[in-house]
Amino acid sequence: MSDFQRSFARAKLAGLPFEPPLAENATVESGQDEAQEEIDEVQPLPEFEQDEDSSSTSSASSASSTGTIKPNSKHLFARPDGFVYPFYAFFFNLFPLAMELNAGRRALDPLPWNDYFNQEYYLENIRHGEIVIHHVYIIPPAPKGPLFICHHGAGSSGLSFALFAAELRKLLPSCGVLSVDARGHGDTVVKTPEGQVRGEPYDLNLDLLGLDLADAVRLLHAKLEWPHLPDMVLVGHSLGGPVVTNVALKGALGSSLLGYAVLDVVEGRHLNIQYGVYGITMV
Q1: Residue 216: which of 128, 137, 140, 100 has the closest Cα?
Q2: Closest of 184, 175, 103, 180 to residue 144, by C-alpha
Q3: Block means of pLDDT (10 residues each) for the chain, length 283 residues?
Q4: What is the DSSP string of 101-165?
Q5: DSSP per-residue codes, 60-89
Q6: Is the Cβ–Cβ distance between 149 and 95 less than 8 Å?
Q7: The pTM is what?
Q8: Distance between CA atoms of residues 198 and 179, nearest Å
């Protein structure tokens, strides 16, 4: 045991009631001796290899960088393999309990996106000066159900709304959920007219992000051959808040838009936009 572990153990044991020593003729089971040896020898933590795609997910924050973090949406919910012993197991002979709790658990594999969404699409959008391949996840709505259109925050991806989609569908089974990857995030790609992929710095101008969102909805409408746009509610988290507000302000989705909601948004930026929105409900 290290000096730190010994000092920690002494501090914890000092508060416990005193126990008299065992009699000289008392016997100790061999299993307890082996367990004590395990305590004295610190067990190494399990190691896992982080692939190149998932390494970019670390330190992603919806409130920080808007152009340098690009999580790979396929591994957003990846968790390390193996079992990590609780730190207190080293001091209180809890290895058998830890192993018992771990027994029978399945491997902590990444949770696939299609546990939460039915379909994903790559929608090509040719504009003047660029080609955008919008990547989106969707659960289509029932014929008369509303469609919730979700825009994530900076440094995240469309899969940040995966659990939201699952819980919302429990409350409103007829609704659909569309969640987009913004440019520079997830699997959405921006190319030059010659087909070269554009890298950092990404252009995250508010008007451009709003145009991306509206275009992705229109392209999906054509792709799925809907007779008309369903009733829609926009939902934006953090950076996505001003984006959905901007789309509502410009009327880019027409009369099918019922309202919009913002979550954990940068307040000043959002309020400057919100004052121009009339006739649309904001929650």
Answers
A1: 137
A2: 175
A3: 68 64 51 54 51 41 39 47 44 49 56 92 94 97 96 94 96 97 95 90 91 97 95 96 94 94 74 50 52
A4: HHTTPPP-PPPPGGGT-SEEEEEEEEETTEEEEEEEEEEPPPTT--EEEEE--TT--GGGGHHHH
A5: --TTS-SSS----GGGTT---SS-PPPGGG
A6: no
A7: 0.62
A8: 23
